[in-house]
Amino acid sequence: MTAKIAWAKKRDLGDVVHILQVSNGKAADCVCLDCGGELVAKHGTGKMAPHFAHSANTECRGEGALHYAAKHLLAEILLQQGLILSSSSGEVSEYIRSERVVFPYQVPDLMLRAHCISTEKDVSDDWRPDLVAVDKNGNSIAFEVAVTHFKSEKDIIKIRRHGMDCVEIDISDIGWDADRAKLTAELHEIKRQKWLHRKSALEAKFEASEKLASRISQLHDIHNKRIRKFIAKGWKDKGVGFLNPAIPSLSARHEARDVFGGIVVGEVVRTPRIVRIDSEWKHGDSGAAVTAVLEKGVKINLSIVDEMVFYQDEDSCMEGPALVLVVRDSSAGNMDLRGEWYGVERWQAKLDELAKKDAVEKLNIAKERQRGLEDFAAEFRRKKPEEQLSIILRKFGISETYSVGRYDPEWNTSETVWKLIIWHYKVLKKRSVKVVDLANDRWFAKMLGFSQADSRRRCNGLQPWMDLLVRNNILRPGLHGALDIMGKLRGPVPGVPLSD
Ligand SMILES: [Zn+2]
């Protein structure tokens, strides 16, 4: 879109005029505010808004016209009525525990009437503000009028370095054809102002920061005194031992999978204990520090800090190994300690190694046990049925004279007997059983003296027993009506002989 020009300069007097203030056509007698070229006023007809056009062919599009007009009007306002400059306010704060200590500051608004104005004059090598107003006391305030170009962060740094107060007025949202009355009203709008630099506001902020710093240091003093008292009391009551309950354990965990996909967890936990301290307590701004000695003569940096201070300095690097004991108010109104370790990466790495080793050992034990079970099962299979039964009975501590083999057409016997039947399957390395298979198992029929007639009735009789074993976590419903045998039925301990 081509830029539209609504503002121009009268050729003779140099006045800045709006399109509606001049005659139509060449009679306007105006030149371009950007290039100085001759302009023609086009008051137009129909939809075309009144505007200026260059009379000769030119590259110039008069983009700076509105900016120039605004500057011109602003100078007029500053010299004649004066302009109210906005107040500046802010706050400085710091967190102490969850509480925020805040100091606000404010510089009130101000009526600026310019004694004189300079435009487009270099203030420094790298800064030429749109205009500089000087009040009757000789104070200078720079103005930047933003139509299409705002000051960048880099520009603002330059302005601050120079030190002259500076206000940016944002009129970027005003139409290109705004006339004198509209432009004047908009330039008066306080909300269009932004202080790029204001010395008095910086001073007020600095003052507030000093107050904040002094308040913070006062709070530190209060808390440091508290810590001294706390340490003195602890020492009197329990000596070095008063520190130990606050020391957190260090631990590591390592998970490994056994050949069956089960998870074996290796774990180590160490709780270091302080046996003595090796130096005088050094009291500083944020608490007290000392060299402490652990059980095996390992030295650590120990500090006691108040919770309030600690959360501020949390990021400060701790030379490890270091133990920070944080003092806090407990609910009972007493003070207690809570410890945190820092710089113990090497210890942690060692614990991780130990946890891994523990997992490997546990895996080996499981493997060993599995091998024992396999040997046992192989041997069990080679036994005669009578011997197998006797092994099972011994395993469950049932005397051989117990009437397991009592004739019962519905195989209605005790839970213990059903348990041992399931165990028999487990030894034979079955992972699941079905009621119908149990009902038709010849081994049972022969060994336990169960009737082989009427398989369906036996199934019905078996079902409640299997349900009971499910409730007792010995079986679990599996796929296709099968019952998975759970690990709860322990096999024999490896190495236990099958027969005496
Ligand atoms: Zn031009």
| Integer count of domains | 4
Number of helices: 11
Catalogue the ligands: zinc ion
Distance between the termini: 106 Å
Name the average pLDDT: 83
What share of the residues does DSSP label as strand, in percent?
25-35%
Compute the gyration radius: what is it? 46 Å
Low-pLDDT residue intervals, each spanning 5 or more residues: 402-410, 491-500
What's the β-strand tally? 25
User: What spatial form do the alpha-carbon principal axes imply?
Assistant: elongated
Largest sheet: 6 strands, mixed
User: Which bin fits the share of residues in helices?
Assistant: 25-40%
Task: Give the structural class.
Answer: alpha+beta
What does this structure look like?
The model is unreliable at 402-410 and 491-500 (pLDDT under 50). The chain has four domains: 7-63, no CATH class; 84-197, no CATH class; 240-350, no CATH class; 383-485, no CATH class. Strands 17, 18, 19, 20, 21 and 22 form a six-stranded mixed β-sheet that branches. The longest helix has 40 residues, at 199-238. A hairpin with an 8-residue loop joins strand 4 (38-42) and strand 5. It has 500 residues and is α+β, with helices and mostly antiparallel strands. The protein is 34% helix and 27% strand. It is built from eleven helices and 25 strands. It binds zinc ion. Zinc ion is lined by residues 32, 34-35, 37, 54, 60, 62.
